[in-house]
Amino acid sequence: MTDQANQSRRNFLYVAAGGLGAVAAGATVVPFIGSMLPAADTLAASKTEFDVSTVEAGQLVVIQWQGKPVFVVNRTAELLAQVDGHDDRLKDVNSEAIPEVQQDWMDTPEKRKYRAIKPEYLIVVASCTHLGCIPLFKPTQGRKDWGDSVPENWAGGWHCPCHGSYYDISARVVNGSPAPHNLHVMPYKYTSDTKVVIG
């Protein structure tokens, strides 16, 4: 009886010691692994450089910035002409609803209208402000095969396939869309005639 009790106690002590050892190892390893991850301020400061001259006239390309997709569009004169004439059908004509995404360079009515430092190059986060889907670039006037929800006289821009939000060619949200805001403009600047740094 005594040998059996001693054996049970030894087994219990082995299991308890092993469990405590595992907890101690975890307590040591977790902070060590965490120290290898980039700090939040490092991630926030990350930048993306891109040469906009690589985008053909009328073309949209998608690049990455801080893990987010970003639209870069080279708007032709015809596309830029689509910016005017529908202010009354937009939720936020002057991009004033989200002050934190307004940029210092958005200091003139023209820059606020085109939402770009250089009107031909629009650079916005490629995420619908409703629930984050990626809108489709549809630079021409709406067609019936897009569904009955195409806004009347919509000249073209973006259409979100998830819940039917529409944006104009300056990525400003159209009235009646579930998206509450325009596509976000992130901080960026030109370091040369064609090179931009985002972030």
- Assembly state of the chains shown: single chain
- Strands in their spatial order, largest beta sheet: 1-9-8
How many angstroms separate the termini? 74 Å
Radius of gyration: 27 Å
Series of H and E elements: HHEEEHHEEEEEE
User: Shape from CA axes?
Assistant: elongated
Overall helicity: 25-40%
CATH class of the largest domain: Mainly Beta
Point out poorly predicted stretches: none
Largest sheet: 3 strands, antiparallel
CATH architecture of the largest domain: 3-layer Sandwich
In total, the number of strands is 9
Discrete helix count: 4
Q: What percent of residues are in strands?
A: 15-25%
The CATH superfamily of the largest domain is identified as Rieske [2Fe-2S] iron-sulphur domain
* Number of separate domains: 2
Organism: Mariprofundus micogutta
Cofactor: [2Fe-2S] cluster
Family: Belongs to the Rieske iron-sulfur protein family.
Subunit structure: The main subunits of complex b-c1 are: cytochrome b, cytochrome c1 and the Rieske protein.
Features:
26% helix; 4 helices; 199 residues; Rieske Iron-sulfur Protein; single chain; alpha+beta
Task: Characterize the structure shown.
- With 199 residues, the chain is α+β, with helices and mostly antiparallel strands.
- It folds into two domains: 2-37; 44-198, Rieske [2Fe-2S] iron-sulphur domain (Rieske Iron-sulfur Protein).
- The chain is built from four helices and nine strands.
- It has helices at residues 2-36, 40-44, 77-81, 109-114; strands spanning 48-51, 60-65, 68-74, 121-125, 136-138, 157-159, 166-167, 188-190, 195-198.
- The strands form three sheets. Strands 1-9-8 form a three-stranded antiparallel beta sheet, with no helix packed on it.
- Strand 8 (188-190) and strand 9 form a beta hairpin.
- The N and C termini lie far apart (74 Å).
- The mean pLDDT is 83.
